[in-house]
Design goal:
Elements lengths: L13 E8 L8 E4 L13 E4 L1 H11 L8 E8 L3 E8 L7 H16 L53 H5 L20 E4 L6 H20 L7 E6 L2 E7 L9 E3 L8 H16 L3 E4 L4 H12 L4 E4 L12 H8 L3 E5 L12 H16 L2
Parallel strand pairs: 9-10, 10-11, 11-12
Antiparallel strand pairs: 1-5, 1-6, 2-3, 4-5, 7-8, 8-12
Helix pairs in contact: 1-2, 4-7, 5-6
Length: 367
């Protein structure tokens, strides 16, 4: 994730999403607080309470335009052991993006030592100040393209500081040391993602805003959001993500609807299956035909428990995305696959469709 795009000019006008980790994934920037069920805008909604160090790092990020006026800071989301920042390069940079990030890290190191902020490597004539105060997540009038957020980890690693520095770590500060026990604040490198289309902008804003809630959900129900492998049911072996407890539900209904079923006949079938789900049955389906998709989509939107069979499998680093993340975290979704993960887009074969329907029936029989 820290490899640069060899075909991209990292000085050109573009929006970037930058993810920077704390060395050792130590939770130095703050802690997550709130009620995971509280809606956005509520004072109890999940949020990050910054440590003094976290506040300093956030301020340093917001101050980047003082040294690079070509950059407009769009947002910063601090997390306990990493940070996400989005900025818009309005005009061509005089240096590579990597030098901007290096300057930011150097500024944080100097602030930790009580010195003045380090100025990135710019010629004197290129150094300017910016009067506008940068606000976290503030909406801008200038249209920009969206950006992907970097990956977040499920748990924070134990601090790896020397004994004399661990007290400072608990307070969210790190005292630099020349001794052998010194561990740098930031991990080497950074992850960048490049905004590709206007349509995704709001999605990525929401992703950053929801990061604290996602972290709380991961900590509350880690088993629902961690991939598993080698689950044997009947003649099939599955990998998957989600609530495996749904496999023990008293009633499991395989959803299979012929493509030939249309009109009122389809409506009656949809209502019959959904009635069973509303009465406590767990629906199981690969959701291949339009009728199956309609049933499973309606059940999902109503918050009913479902088991979905998918063609693309999972890796140890896989995690559900978007609305599937919340459904898994809440324990109402299980996704299963009998195939390995792949990165290319593939069309289902007739054989796979038959196999997936057989899998649904095997799951409903309980093996």
């Amino acid at each position: 994730m820290k490899r640069r795009d060899s075909h991209h000019d990292y000085a050109e006008r573009r929006m970037y999403m930058i993810t920077i980790e704390v060395e050792g994934r130590r939770a130095l920037f703050g802690r997550v607080e709130g009620d995971v069920s509280a809606p956005d805008g509520n004072t109890e909604a999940p949020h990050i309470v910054l440590s003094p160090l976290g506040k300093m790092v956030q301020d340093e990020w917001l101050g980047i335009p003082r040294f690079f006026p070509q950059i407009e800071v769009m947002a910063v989301q601090m997390m306990p052991d990493h940070m996400h920042g989005i900025f818009f390069v309005k005009d061509r940079l005089p240096v590579h993006l990597g030098q901007v990030i290096s300057g930011f890290k150097a500024g944080c190191r100097k602030m930790m030592r009580g010195e003045t902020s380090a100025e990135p490597m710019l010629a004197e004539k290129d150094r300017k100040t910016q009067a506008e105060t940068m606000l976290v997540g503030k909406e801008r009038e200038t249209p920009v393209e969206p950006m992907l957020a970097g990956k977040e980890r499920e748990t924070s690693a134990e601090p790896m500081l020397a004994e004399k520095e661990r007290g400072n770590c608990q307070q969210g500060t790190v005292a630099p040391s020349s001794g052998s026990g010194y561990v740098p604040l930031f991990a080497k490198g950074y992850n960048d993602l490049i905004l590709r289309s206007y349509e995704e902008l709001e999605n990525w804003k929401n992703y950053l805003r929801e990061n604290p809630r996602r972290l709380m959900m991961k900590r509350s129900n880690p088993e629902f959001l961690r991939p598993f492998f080698g689950l044997r049911i009947g003649e099939f072996t599955f990998n998957g993500i989600g609530n495996r407890g749904l496999l023990q539900a008293e009633r499991r209904v395989a959803v299979r609807v012929s493509r030939r079923l249309v009109g009122e006949d389809l409506d009656r079938t949809v209502e019959r299956v959904l009635r069973e789900a509303r009465e406590g049955a767990v629906l199981v389906s690969p959701a291949i035909s339009p009728g199956e998709k309609r049933i499973m989509r309606t059940a999902f939107d109503e918050g009913l428990p479902t088991i979905v069979i998918v063609e693309n499998g999972f890796t140890k680093l896989s995690k559900p995305h978007g609305e599937q993340f919340y459904a898994c975290g809440e324990g109402r979704l299980l996704m299963l696959s009998a195939w390995e993960h792949h990165n290319d887009k593939r069309k289902l074969t007739a054989y796979q469709c038959v196999q997936m329907n057989m899998m649904a029936f095997a799951i409903c029989k309980g093996g």
